[in-house]
Amino acid sequence: MANNILDIFNPATGLKIKEIPCDDESSIQIKFYKLQEGQKFWKTMVLSERIKIIQNFSNLLAKNIEQLALILTSEVGKPLQESRNEVNGAIKKISFFIKESEKILKATEVNVDGTTHEILIYDPLGVVVNISAWNFPYLVGVNIFIPALICGNAVLYKPSEFSSLTGLEIERLMFEAGVPKNVFNAVIGKGEIGEFLLNLKINGIYFTGSYGTGKKIAEKLKSKMLPMILELGGKDPLYVTDKVDDLTQVAEAVAEGCFYNNGQSCCAVERVYVHEKVYDAFLEVFVLATQKLTVGDPLNLKNTQGPITRPVHLKFLQQQVDDAINLGAKLLCGGKQIEGKGAFYPPTILINVNHSMSVMKDETFGPVRGIMKVKNDEDAIKFMNDTEYGLSAAVYCKDKERARSILDSVNSGTSYINCCDRVSAYLPWSGRNHSGFGSSLSHLGLYAFTQPRGLHLR
Length: 458
Ligand code: NAD
Fold this sequence. Notes:
The protein is an alpha/beta fold. It has helices at 25-42, 47-63, 65-76, 80-105, 137-150, 164-177, 191-197, 211-221, 247-259, 279-291, 313-326, 377-385, 400-408, 444-447; strands spanning 5-9, 16-21, 108-113, 116-124, 127-131, 154-158, 184-186, 204-208, 228-231, 236-240, 269-275, 330-333, 348-351, 368-374, 392-396, 414-417, 429-430, 436-437, 439-440, 450-457.
């Protein structure tokens, strides 16, 4: 493993843009021991001081946004404006932790029993590992490393091999903000480096990535009984009922939910069900909304769609399209890799789909979507629940009671009424079934990085 180099490619051009050194077992051991030492000091700092440092980090994100956005676009290929949006979104999430942490983490006297004061205290865990994904490295990263640091933990942070330049920028800005070098460290490398981190005597593991990798991590760590959050994939359904005011507006919102970041979002709309009364009219405006999207150079601000981040994934997208067509689906647009340099695949719509097809069962994580007609709400609920995942589910309906009652019957960690594909720092972000377990964000996403202690004070 020693002295390995990680090649960084630009998916829009296919060209190598950088070679960076990977960590190896010995460099990771050294980082880990230093973090164990650093955490002893970090946890004793007054909470407001740690929060001040996180505020500095957030300010540095804002100050460096153009440079950070360019780096992000160069390695993951998302349109430049989406990269800027992502950094701004991370700043917004961080502001929740800055504003709310002191209130949430405050030691609380919960009871007085005679002369005994009963006090609830939130201690940090120690050194925690954060293994992260490439699709929104800032947005999914701050869910974990910001509250982990605020709570007094040290963090060993492994960015994805597809967003390692961004990971190194995050580390650089953490140090510039005042996070000690023995409190936050990035480790660089592919999956085997992530696997090695699991051998360390860590105090918590926080993983964002695919179900397959999450399962391996959970299996490997089961006997260690560590605090763990697994934020995994999704196959998120959206149902358009027959009670919507403006079908064009709905279609535009659904197209964005399906194709933002090329559909490479954990909570992207991956399956669309439409009530039979509005099915034909919806299809018409949905195809129009999709055809407005423009695919090409992500640095050109006119383009809404960049390349697929991992070129190897193009094969899987094509397989899903071919499988659906072989089983009777009809292609309305897209359906074939765009020729020329770079890994470009157009937004693709399939109809006449059913649940025997991979496109309606397996996470696509790219711009291919199936649209299915349903007879009524019961039908929609049945199909929405027919999945191994459970991250988010959306219903468009102007009767909010009806939408609420549909979503109360759908098993997912997040429900959306008349919106989709959004995350708020004020609400828990939590998957069910193959979408993972544990909650980040909200007050739960702070407690997730602590261990409670009951103090009996007489
Ligand atoms: P991935 O599982 O391929 O990799 C994630 C991370 O795990 C990477 O850093 C990788 O190097 C590391 N890794 C790979 N094998 C490992 C092993 N055996 N042990 C330890 N670490 C290992 O996922 P990805 O392609 O980076 O991300 C896409 C997936 O992440 C999608 O399924 C997406 O839905 C999911 N995701 C979920 C959320 C969420 O909040 N639920 C957010 C973003 C992405």
